[in-house]
Q: What sequence folds into this?
């Protein structure tokens, strides 16, 4: 440590006040010198240790910050602000459980501490405990009703609880106090998008970008809305902003340059790599043959569950599971950047199907396992639980009751992950063949789908796979469907064999299911047998 004790004024508290003022004004170097001066005179000063810990935190040195703040609390374990800072460091280290314990210790000392309540609420949101988080934010607002940060977080909790209309009301209230707050404007745009109000969402995102044109989350929301509205030129450009928001941790740090269509590929090797969910990979792997047609040697890196299925894809020289050792390559491109690389417009979507074909021997094996005679229709009613819109895009099996009552159909469950709430009903449906739990990977899923007459699915990987195989697909979509399904149409330019059935009211599947049943009864599907 620097600053020998003889240079320290006798009034240590005065030095601490100077250090705190320097810290609050952003003069971190000055604050650090002053705190070190205090520690050279008083090694167990909570305020100096805590202050230095806060500075290290702001500079991104989390390990040192953690040690300093823990030392501060050893010096004085009755300081709630110390536990608030400790929880913040644990939160930044993604150790949410220890963050919660730290906040709880602090709240035991100071039950109405707004910073502690707010920070614990944020950690609870990240743990998927939005109801508890909402309680913390509401307690904090009782103490400090004007706290803009807490107010915005209350809106975020309501959104996570799938109450977007109430969230928008909170965001609007907060924006009355700070109209140019880019986080509030962006979150408001996301909530409006969920309520299928794209033009209002676009305006809110545009207002955020007017404040900061480089704000990635706002640009990403704007791009998603533009894509949903069919503005592909601006949409695909803006979609590159996904790396500046929630997807930043998924961004690959690769030495080879990013290819977005500009450089010639003759004689070059390019790595195309999956970046998001299974359905995204299935949808956008269609571009691989187009890349190969430009003279490239194509290496495809995908999720392990898709590697076997895609290994025989046209134009792909090698398929590697994610985290495998990569060979040399000259360029790389994430799969969802390929539409931008090919300047894809609605009229130029590469929609030649099938572009995924399971091996014939594998199809024959699965066909032998399925009963013959009646038309066979596969069902998938729920996607990945971790998806940020799972509450809306997935449904309960009981919601499909009108469909399941249709006679002379062999329904086949393709559901790999059966949720606890659906298990009893599925067990009672002895007339439904359950094969989803037998799938080792998507090669099995594809072979089973090839043996069916049609697939009924919500917006999940099974739907994309059926569409990519050219299988008749009856797709059930939430009120505000994902951008790829566009708006107000019952077909898909991505999948010619798809027929879309959309909710007419937020969270209400009844009309979509009834429309699906009527359509199914009026088609020739019920008289077919694969």
A:
């Amino acid at each position: 440590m620097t600053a020998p004790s003889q240079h320290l004024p006798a009034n240590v508290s005065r030095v601490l006040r100077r250090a705190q003022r320097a810290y609050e004004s952003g003069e971190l170097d000055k604050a650090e010198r002053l705190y070190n001066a205090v520690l050279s005179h008083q090694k167990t000063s909570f305020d100096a240790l805590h202050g230095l810990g806060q500075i290290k935190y702001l500079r991104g040195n989390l390990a040192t910050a953690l040690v300093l703040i823990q030392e501060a609390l050893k010096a004085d374990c009755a300081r709630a602000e110390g536990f608030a800072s400790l929880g913040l460091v644990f939160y930044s280290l993604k150790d949410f459980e220890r963050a919660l314990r730290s906040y709880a210790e602090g709240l035991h000392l100071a039950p109405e501490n707004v910073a502690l309540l707010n920070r614990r609420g944020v950690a609870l949101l990240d743990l998927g405990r939005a109801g508890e988080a909402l309680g913390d934010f509401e307690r904090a607002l009782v103490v400090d009703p004007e706290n803009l940060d807490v107010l915005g977080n209350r809106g975020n909790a309501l959104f996570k609880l799938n109450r977007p209309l109430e969230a928008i009301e909170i965001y609007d209230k907060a924006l009355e106090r700070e109209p140019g707050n880019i986080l509030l404007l962006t979150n408001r745009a996301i909530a409006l998008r969920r309520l299928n109000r794209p033009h209002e969402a676009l305006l809110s995102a545009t207002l955020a970008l007017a404040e900061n044109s480089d704000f990635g989350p706002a640009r990403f929301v704007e791009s998603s809305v533009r894509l949903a509205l069919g503005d592909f030129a601006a949409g695909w450009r803006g979609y590159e902003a996904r790396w500046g928001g929630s997807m930043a941790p998924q961004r690959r740090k690769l030495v080879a340059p990013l290819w977005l269509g500009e450089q010639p590929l003759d004689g070059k090797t390019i790595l195309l790599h999956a970046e998001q969910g299974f359905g995204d990979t299935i949808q956008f792997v269609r571009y691989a043959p187009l890349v190969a047609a430009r003279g490239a040697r194509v290496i495809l890196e995908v999720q392990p569950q898709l590697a076997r299925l895609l290994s025989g894809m046209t134009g792909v020289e090698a398929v590697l599971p994610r985290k495998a050792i990569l060979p040399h390559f000259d360029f790389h491109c994430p799969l969802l950047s390929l539409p931008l690389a090919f300047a894809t417009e609605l009229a130029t979507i590469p929609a030649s199907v099938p572009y995924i074909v399971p091996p014939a021997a594998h199809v024959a094996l699965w066909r032998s396992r399925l009963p013959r005679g009646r038309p066979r229709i596969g069902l998938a009613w729920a996607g990945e639980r971790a998806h940020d819109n799972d509450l809306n895009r997935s449904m309960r099996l009981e919601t499909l009751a009108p469909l399941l009552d249709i006679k002379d159909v062999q329904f086949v469950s393709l559901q790999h992950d059966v949720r606890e709430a659906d298990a009893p009903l599925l067990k009672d449906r002895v007339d439904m063949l359950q094969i989803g739990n037998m799938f080792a990977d998507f090669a099995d899923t594809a072979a089973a789908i090839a043996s069916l007459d049609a697939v009924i699915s919500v917006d999940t990987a099974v739907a994309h796979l059926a569409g990519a195989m050219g299988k008749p697909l009856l797709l059930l979509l939430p009120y505000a469907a994902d951008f790829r399904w566009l708006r107000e149409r019952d077909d898909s330019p991505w999948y010619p064999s798809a027929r879309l059935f959309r909710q007419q009211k937020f969270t209400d599947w009844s009309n979509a299911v009834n429309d699906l049943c009527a359509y199914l009864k009026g088609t020739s599907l019920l008289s077919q047998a694969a």
